[in-house]
Specification:
The protein is α+β, with helices and mostly antiparallel strands. The protein has a domain at 3-31 and 45-78 and 105-141. The protein is built from three helices and four strands, in the order αβαβββα. It has helices at 3-29, 56-60, 107-141; strands spanning 45-51, 71-78, 84-87, 99-102. The strands form two sheets. Strands 1-2 form a two-stranded antiparallel ribbon. The longest helix has 35 residues, at 107-141. It is elongated. The protein starts with a helix and ends with a helix.
C-alpha cells in the first residue's frame, strides 16, 4: 500500500470538485446577465475530467503494482443549451420583437450539480483523512 499515492488520488479528486464548484458558481452568477448588443449570450460551462488510471498496456508489460493517478481535469466546454428568451418590450436590450436573450442556465440543474460536487468533495476528503489515520496507526505499530 502506497499511502502517498492514495493521498494524491484523493487530493486530485478534491481539486477537480473544487474546480467544478467554481464553474457552477460562475454559471449561477451569470444566470440573469442579458445578451448585450454585439456580444453573444453567456453559455453554460461544464468541466471535463478523465480518469488518471494507469494504462492497461503498462499492466500487461509487467507493472503489476502501479500507483493510480486520480482525476485529471482536461478542460472546460460550453454547453449548447439555447438562450432563454424573455418578452420585455420596454427593455433597451430587447430585439425588434421585444425579446431579451438570457443564458440558458437552469438553476435546478446547477444546484443538483453543486450538491453532487459537494458530496464528491466530502467523499474524497473522508478518504484522504482515513488514509492519514491509517498511516499514523502504522507508525504507532512500528514503535
Amino acid at each position: 500500500m502506497n499511502f502517498f499515492s492514495d493521498l494524491r488520488i484523493s487530493a486530485s479528486g478534491m481539486k477537480a470538485e473544487r474546480k467544478r464548484m467554481d464553474i457552477i458558481s460562475n454559471n449561477i452568477a451569470n444566470i440573469n446577465n442579458p445578451q448585450t448588443p454585439g456580444e453573444r449570450v453567456f453559455q453554460t460551462q461544464r468541466l471535463i475530467t478523465k480518469s488518471g488510471a494507469p494504462k492497461f498496456n503498462n499492466w500487461l508489460a509487467g507493472f503489476r503494482v502501479m500507483p493510480g493517478k486520480g482525476v485529471e481535469v482536461t478542460g472546460i466546454v460550453e454547453d449548447s443549451t439555447p438562450p432563454r428568451m424573455s418578452f420585455e418590450p420596454g427593455n433597451p436590450l430587447a430585439d425588434s420583437e421585444g425579446y431579451v436573450a438570457y443564458p440558458g442556465v437552469s438553476m435546478i440543474d446547477e444546484m443538483v450539480r453543486a450538491m453532487s460536487a459537494s458530496r464528491s468533495y466530502d467523499a474524497n476528503l473522508t478518504a484522504f483523512n482515513e488514509t492519514k489515520r491509517m498511516f499514523n496507526r502504522a507508525l504507532e505499530i512500528g514503535k
